[in-house]
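Section: Multi-chain targets

For targets with more than one molecule, the full set of components is provided together so that the structure can be written out for the assembly as a whole rather than chain by chain. Components appear in the order listed by the source. The example entry contains three components.
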Amino acid sequence: MITEPAELPGLAAASSLTLLRQRKPLVHCMTNDVVQAFTANALLAVGAAPAMVIEPREAVQFAAMADALLVNIGTLTAPRAEAMMAAITSANQAGTPWVLDPVAVGALTFRTEFARGILTLKPAAIRANASEILALAGQPALGRGVDSADDSRYALPFARQLAADYGTLVAVTGRVDFITDGDRVWSVTDGDAMMTRVTGTGCALSAVAAAFCALPGDRLQHLAAACRIMARAGRLTARDAAGPGSFAVGFLDRLYGLQEEDIQ
Amino acid sequence: MITEPAELPGLAAASSLTLLRQRKPLVHCMTNDVVQAFTANALLAVGAAPAMVIEPREAVQFAAMADALLVNIGTLTAPRAEAMMAAITSANQAGTPWVLDPVAVGALTFRTEFARGILTLKPAAIRANASEILALAGQPALGRGVDSADDSRYALPFARQLAADYGTLVAVTGRVDFITDGDRVWSVTDGDAMMTRVTGTGCALSAVAAAFCALPGDRLQHLAAACRIMARAGRLTARDAAGPGSFAVGFLDRLYGLQEEDIQ
Amino acid sequence: MITEPAELPGLAAASSLTLLRQRKPLVHCMTNDVVQAFTANALLAVGAAPAMVIEPREAVQFAAMADALLVNIGTLTAPRAEAMMAAITSANQAGTPWVLDPVAVGALTFRTEFARGILTLKPAAIRANASEILALAGQPALGRGVDSADDSRYALPFARQLAADYGTLVAVTGRVDFITDGDRVWSVTDGDAMMTRVTGTGCALSAVAAAFCALPGDRLQHLAAACRIMARAGRLTARDAAGPGSFAVGFLDRLYGLQEEDIQ
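Its structure, encoded as tokens over all components, is:
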């Protein structure tokens, strides 16, 4: 029996945000070269703490100290892949939840094999667009690059299957986001197309998702809350933005100032 | 017989921009560590699609799939140089046009030798300041670092010679930009000195130039259009900018919102 | 006999800034992956010139040509550590002053050993928060990550000792900054908590400090001036900033437009 998607209540998202701001989780980010600053600034704005640590021996040490680990393969290299493997192993030993962002998986062989390999290492969650979910699930995909050509609704059954097969949570994001543990599904209908004109909004969401995965309580709800908070901040910001430059600036301001009543 | 420089007509630039927005070329960026986000955001704002791929085996694969390849040597390392060589070879086999931005060539031996080496691998275009053009041409240069100490007009004959010798196009940019195939020369007199106070405006222009080189039709005109569009966006933005912080933000907004009538 | 901390006079800071803008020092930045663009933009805004050069053989060459060298270990890797060692050696031979930013030293073994090792290579100055100063001094520290859990006043005696032991200057920054050569101490009471919500403000200060260390005259005063100028720009910007996004933008505008009378 499969549960139908239900819209995440604003109250639940607001409560997750309050908890995040109390706990200020420290997120160990192993992410791509393009989005480092935006990711760190998004984490700081929402109320978490970022730290980028990539030397293998340090990544091993830090993954055991941090509250969550982000693994984003956007500019994967062979040395970075080794450092990520070491960090994931350390995170798993220490009980640090880790989140996978399988950027542009499918089109490129090296990262696709790497992403499929680490899927088996018990990520707490996967945050991806529809194309990437299809690729992880071994389905034929349409897209090239990072923009999702497929719709998240089409990808949802595969997201559920991935979640069930690997004992993880999956957030498949797009015009509508679906967040599932394989059984339950939350949906988030918010956001704005302007988010696709700023590099790193998806990557920043994955980092924020990692921060929310560090919270005690219902992790599926927290993960959906991360999606809702970022989408809501995006929609509220887009109203007044003259273009993608001022959108990116306003988005960080909005994340920082977001109140419970803005989310509900 | 040598053609005198002629100002690129606004109508031509506008028509190239319209074509770019229809085609949305995917640009494989191999660029320096400083300008990754600004480059990606400039490409998104103007209507192209960026993807940064640097692992050698992925760069080989992706250079054959992308619509254009950018090679920017600003923070060149030995491993990155190898990956760039592999990507250029793959791009040439696949017919993907590639653009060289020889950042700070001349003063530093490693990158100078690398840049001179890849010059022979048939770049579609070179985008550089006057000092860099002089260095590529084996002329004594005055500058150190990335700012152009020589005037683009002084460098123009050497730019023409480079274009003729290597069968490429050269855009030498500065207070006035010249864009040449060795015979014809377009000039662009626009822009604003504030662009020199924001890191990455030249690097972003090279990425945008790569996107324009992917368009069908007169490549020299498209390359000059890239220069004109970026310069015009810069001049329009500088009017209202309080400083380099708001200039960088407004520049992306302006690129995104640029209309045909703004360019003419 | 130990001098009590005295607030740096605004007139002294203003005079250092004027000198910096005349000299436009070129700063060779070897810094972390997260703050590259913000660091370059802060240097450009204040009136200096940045260049990021990291390939070992180029770093050796460039450290001898630049006016100052910045060594920031935020995302240290083994290859980067080797390149930094080579650059420091070259800087010392050429008489180029170099500044150490020991990001997150203490918690992570690899960078801690590296930072302690290069301490003996005669940095012109160290810019760090209180936790990092305690770690360099071999004291037990409270913090994890980059935020300072200890107060700069508590760290001041250790900063003085470090300065005396290694013949260097130390700027320990926080709610109050102290700048010491082991004997004299300047203090700077300015700045704003919003600076802790934007990634890279501390790293950018270290880069600006390197630029000021390139000036002729009283280096302790110049280093304190760097702290005061950044803190003052931060406080003036925070008045009008809606959040960390607009703060980062406004901060660059403010640095660029800062007048002598703003500092006094």
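The mean pLDDT of chain B is 94.
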